[in-house]
Amino acid sequence: MKYQARITLDIIFKYIFKITGLLVLAALGGILAILVYNSILFFLDVKPLDFITGLEWNPTGKTPQYGMLPLILSTTLVTFGAMIIAIPLGIGTAAFIAEYASPKLKTFLKPAIEMLAAIPSVVIGFLGIVLVGPGIADLANLPNGLNALNGAILLAVMALPTIITVAEDAIHAVPKTYKEASYGVGATKWQTLCRVIIPAAAPGIIAAIMLGVGRAIGETMTVLMATGNASLLPEGMFDSVKTMTATIAIEMGEVPYKTTHYFSLYAIATVLFFMTLVANLVGEFFINRFRKYHAA
Questions:
Q1: What would the mean pLDDT of 157-162 be, rounded to a whole number?
Q2: What pLDDT does 294 receive?
Q3: Listed range (167-176, 205-214, 287-296) with the worst mean pLDDT
Q4: Hey, which bits of 147-202 come out as E strands?
Q5: In a 10 Å sphere around its CB, with 0-12 CB exposed, 13-18 middle and 19+ buried, how is residue 169 labelled?
Q6: Is the pLDDT of residue 293 over 60?
Q7: Which segments within the chain are labelled E, that is strand?
Q8: Do β-strands 57-58 and 65-66 pair in parallel, antiparallel, or remain unpaired?
Q9: First to last CA, the chain
């Protein structure tokens, strides 16, 4: 009887886990369906090419303009700037924690870094307004510091905990035999880290980077508060920008229901969805390539 009860319990939990997995897929499919449906209603009024390549976003003007190229470039610029800062800092910190930090220091650093992820984005944005922005304005002799660089710095801070935690786990998971073999042929600790451990942990490190990219692309409140929200083509990191997430957050609360402007925000969300999807697919491609390389 006990054996039969265990088998029955296993079958029940098997179907519970299967149902939960299917529910996640159904939720994702439902979100995508809503985005695509409302985007199609928008594209009945505005040509998709004009929407993607248009140079002006002014949906409330006398002649409404629905060009989201400035929003795409602004989002890309801020995310790229954040990753330039976060990737070397994140991987370097992860390598230090995994290979160089003493046990006492490690027990302090890991919880401290994880606590950084718990800071609300509105608090990070507030610090960008009162601390980082004025500092940038003073250093670059600008009237204010609400620009792409400010947003990139803040997004880098927000992406660091994810990158560090996942990358450190990947580095820590490298078999000790790899290190012992490297030391056995006379390599130093630094050479072992750079030429053996990090390449071996590359799939996990790339996954950490892609999670950081997703965190930066999807952030709303911080960039809304810290980047100036100017829907113009950015020419550099010191220009005020308006990201796609900030545009949706600012305009969705006041836009008339079921108007072209309303549907345009769903179209922006759809573009954002596919940008994130492409970033994840690119990351998955390189992860699989590294796995095949290590398996060969």
A1: 89
A2: 55
A3: 287-296
A4: none
A5: middle
A6: no
A7: 57-58, 65-66
A8: antiparallel
A9: 48
**CA 237, chain centre distance (Å):** 19
Judged by DSSP in three states, 241 sits in strand
| Residue-wise pLDDT tens digits, 58-75 | 888 788 888 888 888 889
Please name which of 178, 211, 197, 194 lies closest in space to residue 280, comparing C-alpha atoms: 211
CA distance 147 to 158: 17
Spatial CB neighbours of 105, under 8 Å, sequence gap ≥ 6: none
CA dihedral for 20, 25, 26, 27, sign (positive or negative): positive
Structure tokens at 246: 């900030």
Which two structure tokens, joined as six digits, stand for 214?
A: 């997703």
Give residues with Cβ within 8 angstroms of 20, minimum separation 6: none
Structure tokens at 60: 């409330």
Contacts of 250 (CB under 8 A, 6+ apart): 224, 229
Asked if residues 247 and 228 have their Cβ atoms less than 8 Å apart, the reply is no
The whole-angstrom separation of Cα 245 and Cα 250 is 9
User: Which residues make Cβ contacts (< 8 Å) with residue 234, sequence separation at least 6?
Assistant: 70, 73, 74, 77, 148, 241
Q: Could you identify the residue written with the tokens 């969705």?
A: 252
φ, ψ for residue 143 (rounded to 5)?
Answer: -65, -30
